[in-house]
Write a structure and sequence with these properties.
This protein has about 160 residues and is mainly beta. The protein folds into 2 domains: about 45 residues, no CATH class; about 90 residues, Sandwich (Immunoglobulin-like). The protein is about 5% helix and about 45% strand. The protein has 1 helix and 13 strands. The strands form 5 sheets. A 4-stranded antiparallel beta sheet has the order 9-8-11-12, with no helix packed on it. The longest helix has 4 residues. The model has no long low-confidence stretch (mean pLDDT about 85). One of its GO terms (biological process) is positive regulation of ERK1 and ERK2 cascade. This is LAG3 protein.
């Protein structure tokens, strides 16, 4: 897993034996064990790493007006109850929430208004809730709905 794995040497002296993995990949899923030997004592702990992935088809950046599929998958083993997609949470009138049984969200004609922060939230039968956030980029034009723009002579027009 090198060079994605590191220990903070300065933290070891303070009893922090945390393992850092960056970036996490799907194949990193599993059970991890840490063992610390101090004099004659051996301490250990187990941590299970789960992974959630968000995939786009076609990959980001998305070209406006082409079908967009956003899928959310997790390594969690319980049965999925609900998938919710949150767009631009806490940002006022442009925010939206879409919930369904499917892990995949289809946007038939993505526009510039679909760009921004998206959060996928998976809710499972065992009450576990897992989420991931990503930034969707859309390539396109964000101009006036009316293609005719009037400007006074001598002024600037955008």
């Amino acid at each position: 897993m090198k060079p994605r794995v590191s220990l903070q040497d300065s933290a070891l002296r303070n009893g922090n034996f945390s393992l850092r993995i960056a970036p996490v990949r799907g194949e990193d899923v599993g059970l991890y064990e840490a063992q610390v030997k101090y004099n004659t004592e051996v301490h250990s702990c187990h941590v299970e790493l789960g992974v959630i992935t968000v995939t786009l088809s076609p990959p980001s950046p998305v070209i406006g007006n082409e079908l967009l599929l956003m899928s959310c998958n997790s390594s969690h083993r319980a049965s999925l109850v609900e998938t919710c997609w949150f767009h631009n949470e806490h940002l006022g009138p442009t925010s939206r929430t879409i919930c369904s049984l499917s892990r995949t969200l289809s946007i038939l004609q993505p526009a510039m208004s679909h760009a921004g922060s998206w959060r996928c939230q998976l809710r499972y039968a065992d009450k576990e809730i897992i989420s991931a956030t990503f930034n969707l980029q859309i390539l396109g034009f964000d101009g006036p709905t009316n293609p005719v723009v009037y400007a006074a002579a001598g002024s600037a027009a955008d």
